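W.,

You were right to be curious about this one. When I first looked at the sequence I had no strong expectations either way, so I just let the prediction run and decided to look at it fresh. Below is the sequence, 221 residues in total, followed by the output.
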Amino acid sequence: MKKILLNKQIYDVIDSNEYFRRKELNPDDSNNLMNETAIEKDGYVYPIIAPSNNNEIEKTIGVRDYGPAMQFIKPQTVEQMNDYSANRVLDFERSENLRETIQKRAQLESMERSILIDKDNIYNISINENDTPEFALLKEAINKKQIDINSYKSRFDDSFSNNMRLLSTSNSITFGKLKAFANVFDLDIEVTIKDKPGCVNPIGEELKTDITWKGGVKFVW
C-alpha cells in the first residue's frame, strides 16, 4: 500500500500497469478508481484527471486517461516538483520493521487530520418532519460539526455516493448503518434503557452502554 496527500486529498499510489489491471478487472468502478488513485512515474506522482474541454483543467498537473493512451502533465516549478515528488509517498510495503510501519501510520493519520479540519465547503443536511428521531439526531450532529463532506470520502467504502444519497433523501436509518455513520464522523453513541412511567415490573434503574465500535474507524458498508 502506498499513499500520498495531494491537493487536500489522500490518493492510493500505483503504477500505470496496475491502474489498467484494476480498471479492466472492475470497469463499473472506473470513476472511483480515477478519483482515488494517483500514478507514479519517473519520480513524480500524478492524480488521474478525466479529459475535459476546459483549458484550465487541461493545464492541471496530473494524468489524463484516454483509454489505451495516457497524457502526463508534468510539474513545472520547483514548488510543484516538490509537491508531486514520489519522495513524499508513504510506502507501507517497504517498511523494515513494526516501528517504521507505526510511524508511517501516524503520518497518514496526520495527513487525514489536516484534510478534516479544512472547512472550505460546509456540508449541511436537511432535516424534515418525516425523519425518525434517531436519523434526525444524526443529521443534526453532522451539521454541527461544520465539515466538508468530501474530506471524509476516504473513510467510506466504494459506496460513498449511495451513502450520501441515503443522508439526503431517506427518512430513516438502520441501527447498523447509524453506528457505521457515527464512526465515520467520530461520534460516540450511547443507548439508555429505562422504565416507562407507571410500568409493570420496573427494572428500577437506567441501563446505559456505549455501542460505538472500538479500535478505529469502521467503514460504512
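Here's what jumped out at me. The beta strands are 2-6, 9-14, 37-41, 44-49, 62-66, 69-73, 90-91, 190-193, 207-210. And, maybe more interesting for your project: The CA atoms of residues 52 and 58 lie 7 Å apart.

Coffee later to discuss?

I.
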